[in-house]
Design goal:
Ribosomal eL28/Mak16 domain-containing protein; Enolase-like, domain 1
């Protein structure tokens, strides 16, 4: 009757961890889904988690091209993962992309609470896609007078 239905059989080390507050029972070791792709705020809140909500928004770079991809979740295709996302690729100026994101997320009543987060993520992704000027910096070889010196 050692392994009865209601009893729990743990080893000595697991009992020690449970008593000392370490191991899988402690809150710090729980899985915290912060870095999932549909989490715009990267916070562990029910409002921002992409796995917990039917309507999610994802903004990411388009790969090698300097494009931004806006993906929203379809609410009717939850059991078909291949058809779950609606993706739109944007490669215009920043203000046009910002207007499209704000219209898609906020104005169409899709997820108006995520409008500011989507715009912040868009600006961060767009800033990361900008190509920095390569090569050595050119020196100014002109004779520049510094005021106060002779």
């Amino acid at each position: 009757m050692a392994n009865a239905f209601g009893s729990i059989d743990m080893g000595d080390s697991e009992k020690e961890q449970l008593i000392s507050g370490q191991g899988v029972w402690k809150r710090k070791s729980m899985v915290r889904p912060k870095k999932e792709p549909n989490n715009l705020y990267n916070l562990n809140k029910f409002q921002t988690l992409g796995l917990a909500n039917k309507k999610t928004v994802r903004i990411q770079g388009g790969g090698k091209d300097p494009t931004v991809e806006l993906a929203t979740t379809k609410t009717k295709k939850q059991n078909q993962p291949g058809k779950l996302k609606h993706k739109s690729v944007m490669n215009k100026e920043f203000y046009r992309m910002a207007k499209a994101v704000s219209n898609q997320v906020g104005e169409n009543h899709y997820r108006p609470d995520l409008k500011n987060a989507a715009l912040a993520r868009l600006s961060a992704v767009y800033r990361s896609l900008k190509v920095s000027k390569s090569g050595a910096k050119k020196r100014n070889r002109q004779n520049v007078r510094i005021p106060g010196r002779k």
